[in-house]
Amino acid sequence: MVVAILGYRRDTNFFYAYYITKILFDMVCEGTVDCLAHAYVAKNVHGRKRISMFGVLAGVRTISGVCATFSARFLPIASTFQVSAMSLFFGLVYMRIFLKERLDNNEGNDDYDEYDGGGLKILAEPILRDAPSNTHVFNTKYSSFKDMISLIKNSTILIQALVVTFFATFSQTGMQSAFLYFLKARFGFTKNDFAELLLLVTIIGSISQLFLLPILVSAIGEHKVLSTGLLMEFFNAACLSVAWSAWVPYATTVLVPGAMFVMPSVCGIASRQVGSSEQGKVQGCISGVKAFAGVLAPFVYSPLTALFLSDNAPFYFPGFSLLCIAFSVMIGFLQSLLIKEHSSLPQVKIIAINNP
């Protein structure tokens, strides 16, 4: 709701008030909405349906970005901020009215199926899928930070998912910081060309997330979808690095769905490694790794892109930074091949839970 400041007035003092307030709020809340949305979906949707819902969530977000772009294009500046503030307010009201918060794991939670005769609950979905048997007891006295460390240390698949998240985000953020710069310097793209290309990418991405991703997950499984997406993203960056004409970036948009498949697949795989009460911690880990990679990528790829597009390049290869991005994606792809897919549930464990 910080944008309401500019919706009220846009004088210099109000702009600085907005800017300072936004920085303070983003230090605490940046990425929180996406993280909590993924955790809410993971808590209320089970099994392989999660990845489809993650794809729908990402697709709706992409479509909302298209709608926001069109709104900013046709609305007056003053109305843009007012409409933005009103949409945030409606989102808050909708959340408070229609989204049910499940604070008690006993209500509708299929992770815990039944009690045994001695007051113990039978855990049907383990807290950690690939953890040793002596780590299935979750001590509620630990802090959230210790919980996250315990989850990561005892789940190989979760560690692998975080590694894939880092390299995928590192590559995607690097592409964002280098791609448009490369197109402008190499082919003289204007803002209209950028707008057309980004609109095409957004449309293809939203369609693939909403309709194509659920079909592929049902057909080949989330692990193969993840590897396929990373491989497509590799070929996309590799082809762009040697682009010889202005039509090549438009042609490579057929590989855009690859980048759109990665994060929903990672969130789906990671969410299945823990019980529903730990979904927020897992999605928080993913969000933290994404934030770190997103900050690091521009420091690496922006200077590298500028160097190889300048006259002082060590050798002539204008798209060298994009080729480095392709290699970074390949590391994530190779890591994704090591993620094991569990074909069956491990043995049911029994843990003690204090009942009120």
TrEMBL record:
InterPro entries: MFS_trans_sf (IPR036259). The keyword Metal-binding does not apply. This is Major facilitator superfamily (MFS) profile domain-containing protein. Its main location: membrane. Gene3D superfamilies: MFS general substrate transporter like domains (1.20.1250.20). It is a multi-pass membrane protein. GO terms for cellular component: membrane. It comes from Capsella rubella. It comes from the Eukaryota. The chain crosses the membrane at residues 53-75, 81-99, 157-182, 194-213, 291-309, 315-339. Keywords: Membrane, Transmembrane, Transmembrane helix, Transport. It is found in: Membrane.
